[in-house]
Design goal:
The chain is α+β, with helices and mostly antiparallel strands. It has helices at residues 6-15, 22-44, 66-79, 145-148, 217-228, 246-256, 277-290, 321-332, and strands at residues 53-57, 63-65, 85-90, 97-98, 108-116, 127-135, 157-163, 167-172, 177-183, 188-193, 204-206, 239-240, 259-262, 275-276, 294-296, 313-314, 316-319. The chain is built from 8 helices and 17 strands. It is globular, with a radius of gyration of 19 Å. The protein binds 6-O-phosphono-alpha-D-fructofuranose. Pfam families: FBPase (PF00316), FBPase_C (PF18913). Residues 4-193 form the Fructose-1-6-bisphosphatase class I N-terminal domain. It is found in: Cytoplasm.
Length: 333
């Protein structure tokens, strides 16, 4: 069977009745090319002197890794000239990035976490890029952050690239979820996982257990029930994973099932959670829902939340539908 590259897949989707406008197809291909460049840099690691701290901080008050900055620059450089974008926004930049005057602008807004989980970089554990694409509201020529503040249901595409034993790009534009593996010999992403589906049930959960004393009651109850195993109320034994890299967790879950949780906790009651809704919560929720899973903040679909700020945080419970519905029900009681 001939290999279907990302470019061929997207062109064939474009040919189908209106599933993928040409400008959006080009944008996705360009993001894929930037992720290839990030993959080659990530894989060089110490050989390229790019591990460790950049010596700078970002809007989140987090120390930036050299590769955070490199990945952010790759995505800006690859996308600013293409003509598909009205503006970009990133975890690494306080304000939106405006398209330089010498380049044409387009109708889309691109948001990304250029290198999620970058604290794992120096210890050689999988990291990833997460991206989300919205339409710029009509008539806005110079998008400020307000133009980005749309609920996740307005996303036209979303995806992640996981830089692990394989580099894989996983993508949705509302017609299912498709996975592409980077063939380094040819430098192209090849379709290897068509129509990915999250198993509806699971025996595997992901949460940072060291925060247990800070959790709210529904989360404590749920984790205790899973730890009680076969003789407990859920009647089965559970396994646990925590990679501290959301992209790696989501990829495991979309591949073999599971539930990922990063709840709000008492460490900082003013924060809704740790993860950011615009470029972590919403894109991952879109992907998981398109793959038949569920994604809530404990009370409602993440994608239905009306964001109030570009770097707003959100509690995240996502993955196998049966378990996400369970923990969400516990929050309602
Ligand atoms: P903790 C990485 O910093 C990240 O944003 C997600 O990728 C990951 O799931 C989470 O934070 C890990 O957080 O508190 O366990 O280090």
């Amino acid at each position: 069977m001939s290999r279907i590259t990302l470019s061929r897949f997207l062109i064939e989707q474009q040919r189908k009745a209106g599933t993928l406008p040409p400008e959006l197809r080009l944008l996705i291909e360009t993001v894929g090319r930037a992720c290839k460049a990030i993959s080659y840099s990530v894989n060089k690691g110490a050989l390229a002197g790019i591990l460790g701290e950049a010596g700078t901080g970002n809007i989140q008050g987090e120390a930036q890794k050299k590769l955070d900055v490199i990945a952010n620059d790759f995505l800006l450089d690859a996308n600013e000239w293409g003509g598909s974008l009205a503006a970009m926004a990133s975890e690494e930049m306080e304000l939106p990035y405006h398209i330089p005057g010498e380049y044409p602008k387009g109708e889309y807004l691109l948001m990304f976490d250029p290198l999620d989980g970058s604290s794992n970089i120096d210890v050689n554990i999988s990291v990833g890029t997460i991206f989300s694409i919205l339409r710029c509201p009509e008539g806005i020529d110079h998008p400020t952050q307000e133009a980005f503040l749309q609920p996740g249901t307005k996303q036209v595409a979303a995806g992640y690239t996981v830089y692990g034993p394989q580099t894989m790009l996983v993508l949705t534009f509302g017609s299912g979820v498709h996975g592409f593996t980077l063939d380094r010999e040819h430098g192209s992403f090849v379709l290897t996982h068509s129509d990915m589906q999250v198993p509806e049930t699971t025996q595997e959960f992901a949460i940072n257990m060291s925060n247990m004393r800070h959790w709210e009651a529904p989360v404590k109850r749920y984790v205790d029930e899973m730890l009680a195993g076969k003789t407990g109320p859920l009647g089965k034994d559970y396994n646990m994973r925590w990679v501290a890299s959301m992209v790696a967790e989501v990829h495991r879950i979309i591949t073999r099932g599971g539930i990922f949780m990063y709840p709000k906790d008492a460490r900082d009651p003013d924060k809704a959670g740790k993860l950011r809704i615009m470029y972590e919560g919403n894109p991952m929720a879109f992907i998981i829902e398109q793959a038949g899973g569920a994604a809530t903040n404990g009370y409602q679909r993440i994608m239905e939340i009306q964001p109030k700020g570009l770097h707003e945080r959100v509690a995240v419970f996502l993955g196998s539908k049966e378990e996400v519905e369970r923990i969400t029900a516990y929050h309602q009681q």
